[in-house]
Write a structure and sequence with these properties.
By secondary structure, the protein is of the alpha/beta class. The protein has two domains: 209 residues, Sandwich (Jelly Rolls), CATH 2.60.120.260; 239 residues, TIM Barrel, CATH 3.20.20.370. Helices cover 28% and strands 23% of the residues. The protein has eleven helices and 23 strands. Strands 1, 4, 5, 7, 8 and 10 form a six-stranded antiparallel β-sheet that branches. Strands 2-3-11-6-9 form a five-stranded antiparallel β-sheet, with no helix packed on it. Strands 12, 13, 14, 22 and 23 form a five-stranded parallel β-sheet that branches. It is elongated and about 75 Å long.
Length: 475
């Protein structure tokens, strides 16, 4: 679910309802209200500071809407007035827009009587009817969006939002919503929407302030060790995806060590080009390749519950996935994996006590990149001395969410953990296009300025001389 789906919460809806109950209904007029923004943002609900009504954003009339998103963590969140609807009702939205990038969509936002979003059955992604506003040229372009109101929906609004880590500018004007009877009044007054917007913007500003890097970084006794944990390498059409060559070349040019998790199923039919790339990078000493699972797939038990690959399976099944992968690694790559990091997918945990038994049995496994707080299974395994457990500080990571590098968030977390000796930083390079890669570069620049020591998982484990990793911090 997109973060803004969760963010448009009961707080906003309750604020709207409370104020609207005490005020007369917003007068009927064009649908949506203030469709050309000639009355500023009246009749619309901005929940952040990215929306403005400006003369330079106008296609017709005096003013138009500009969404200027320079926030690399939070996407824009802007709603029209809500209107009553019934399931099966056909709606058509038209508008004009011009954009400097492909980073923003316009959606229908249907809600039920409780104010919760109603998804379109069977529709992928956010489950909403949407249209991407595309960069074409410097001119205005028309857009059309249609939908059928889904079962359970009692109201609808127009939602304009950008992807969380994307940035850019889009201008809008001349919205027309057809399918709602002429003369239908919005469900909230202008005053109610202004009050709800003020509350939402206050929360947004407070969140931004909390995300802002501190003016000074607390001193450390010694530079931290950084283990870059980059997930999900697999063969793509016989090749290495260009995003992997990009990040590997970038780190090589800066002589920075990293580690990459391989999903091993595609090793069975690996091409010489793919395996050669892995061997060459490993031989350079800059990259350690580790075991990230056989297929990284969620599975469903007999009761219909979903589990991650190494959670809930019996020993024989988990061992088989390790054994097949290690056999292919030795055959195709010329080396066994010495480190393991399980994949996620659903919120049921990524590993269990059985996984610990498998790690203890595998003769080549020496490091476990632990995705959760160290539990009894992990402590017992580490105490036995065979496997080094490297846990994570969730506030100090490459990404705020999967595929979304977040410089500010990492710096804030880093400043709160001055006694932490090492950080395992997880990322997913195949998601790092455009601004996301630049955000990753900012993180690397910061860590270099902090004199961080970049090491691979096995290298760091060996540097401990048989002692367990010191797992402090976690703020």
């Amino acid at each position: 679910m997109h973060p803004a789906l969760r963010a448009f919460s009961h707080k906003t809806l309750f604020a709207l309802a409370a104020v609207a109950a005490a005020l007369p209904a917003f007068a009927a007029g064009p649908i949506p209200a203030n469709p050309g923004f000639e009355d500023g943002l009246d009749g619309w609900l901005p929940r952040d500071t990215m929306a403005s009504a400006l003369p330079e954003a106008a296609r017709t009339g005096k003013l138009g809407l500009r969404i200027a998103d320079n926030d690399t963590v939070n996407g824009s969140d802007f709603h029209s007035s809500r209107y009553p609807v019934t399931p099966g009702q056909e709606l058509t939205l038209t508008f004009q827009a011009r954009a400097d990038g492909n980073f923003l969509v316009v959606c229908f936002w249907p809600t039920n009587e409780a104010g919760k979003p109603v998804r379109i059955p069977g529709k992928k992604g956010d489950g909403l009817a949407s249209v991407l506003v595309k960069k074409q040229d410097d001119g205005w372009h028309p857009y059309t969006l249609t939908t059928t109101v889904p079962p359970g929906a009692t109201a609808v609004s127009v939602w304009i939002h950008s992807w969380s880590s994307a940035t850019g500018v889009v201008d809008f004007d001349d919205f027309v919503l057809e399918g709602i009877p002429p003369g239908t009044a919005p469900l909230e007054t202008v005053e109610a929407m202004k009050a709800a917007s003020s509350s939402a913007i206050a929360r947004y500003n407070a969140r931004r302030a909390a995300e802002a890097p501190p003016a000074e970084i607390p001193p450390r006794k010694a530079p931290p060790v950084i283990i870059l944990k980059l997930d999900d390498l697999r063969q793509t059409n016989g090749k290495v995806h260009h995003s992997w060559t990009r990040v590997a070349d970038y780190l090589k040019n800066r002589s920075i060590k990293s580690s990459i998790g391989i999903i091993c199923e595609t090793l069975a039919e690996a091409t010489p080009e793919y395996t050669g790339w892995i061997r060459e990078r490993r031989d350079s000493g800059l990259i350690e390749f580790w075991f990230h699972g056989w297929d990284h797939q969620v599975w469903t038990d007999d009761a219909g519950k979903k589990w991650n690959e190494f959670k809930g399976r019996p020993f024989d099944e988990q061992w088989s996935r390790f054994e097949r992968s290690q056999t292919l690694a030795k055959e195709k790559l010329g080396f066994p994996f010495a480190a393991f990091g399980p994949g996620g997918g659903v919120g049921t945990g990524s590993q269990d006590g059985v996984t610990a038994q498998v790690m203890a049995k595998d003769p080549d496994m020496k490091v476990w990149l632990y995705p959760s707080p160290v539990d009894a299974s992990g402590r017992d395994l580490a105490a036995a001395g065979k496997v080094t457990i490297l846990d994570r500080v969730w506030a100090v990571n490459l990404e705020a969410a999967v595929g979304q590098p977040a410089f500010n968030r990492l710096v804030v977390g880093y400043a709160k953990n001055p006694d932490r000796e090492y950080f395992v930083l997880q990322g997913h390079p195949t998601h790092w296009a455009g601004e996301r890669f630049r955000e990753f570069e900012k993180i690397i620049d910061f860590l270099v300025e902090q004199n961080a020591v970049f090491m691979t998982p096995l290298e760091y484990a060996q540097s401990l001389g048989g002692k367990p990793a010191r797992q402090v911090g976690g703020k």
